[in-house]
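Course assignment 3, question 2. Fill in each field.
Student: A.L.
Task: Predict the tertiary structure for the chain below.
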Amino acid sequence: ATKQSTGLTIATGKTYDIFIFNAPNSGTFTYRIVDLITAIEFSGTATLNPPAASTALTANVLASNAAVTPVNSIQLGISKIYIETDY
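Answer field:
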């Protein structure tokens, strides 16, 4: 998928809820990110460069500033991952 700026300032000590939905065989993703400290919310729809309809989607976590941060210097804490399907 194509990257999009959220306008959220990611910083140490912040907590977020992230919701992502993609219906089976759909090229549209809807998403919502909520900063649980400030209650600032960002949501939208992504339609550019989706994975092929036959691609299985899985839960994954990746963080980087896409420029100068080495991959081993970023730490993320995951409280829980919940996955639901339409089937």
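Instructor remarks: The chain has a mean pLDDT of 76. The longest strand covers residues 16-22.
Grade: pending
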